[in-house]
């Protein structure tokens, strides 16, 4: 196991040594004593002429949020760094956001975009989504991005779009207007079906869920209220409401659609949010996305391709 002091020596004697200028891969995974100080040692050397790492692996090193700034500096300064693996650490939302933003803004003069691997860190879904979008933009192979979300994915897409006006469009299936409202509806429905839960037991369970989410994901679950955000979101949106969904009742989507500030469409479909979608919906969504993203005619899917998708019965992403 390497300590932070050992990393200082490693950088000075190996990474930056002129005979080792050809060193392009460094795997320090599972060295749990490196800490932020060890990452700072790597960061201080990142702009050096002999720092030629293309792959830096720091998986399972028990890094926390204090390592975020030096990791972002490595991405910003290291020429040719193609991959930074920080999976299975304890990096928080702020740290991962800083690294992802740096990957997105990395100048072309430093060479290839840096692939960022962050699975296994206690980050919120919205931050993981930000990482994915930042990686797509950094790669330079995409233009305008649209988000198609389903259930919790729809909520994450909606909340992200409220903060990111560069998103081109939204397709939202089974979006929840208010998580606390949804839980109350589940409780009431359970009582109607004879599954009454004592109020004290329910309150204790909700407190445990709330505490666990706050500790592991760093956010307050009962503050997830897309209804409070849609009034300031102006990205074109298509709301898909399933009229018989047992999980998210249709009034959630209708409420969100009614309060949404931007251009909007609402399509109600039979069945639930896991049912196969009709060809009408698939065609409507394809037309909506093509128009909102301004897809050139030569790149748009033809009717046959859309029909083939419909035959598979996909219900959204």
Automatic annotation (TrEMBL):
Pfam families: LRR_6. SUPFAM superfamilies: alpha/beta-Hydrolases, RNI-like. Transmembrane segments: none annotated. It comes from the Eukaryota. InterPro entries: AB_hydrolase_fold (IPR029058), DNA-binding_regulatory (IPR052920), Leu-rich_rpt (IPR001611), LRR_dom_sf (IPR032675). This is Uncharacterized protein. The lineage of its organism: Eukaryota, Haptista, Haptophyta, Pavlovophyceae, Pavlovales.
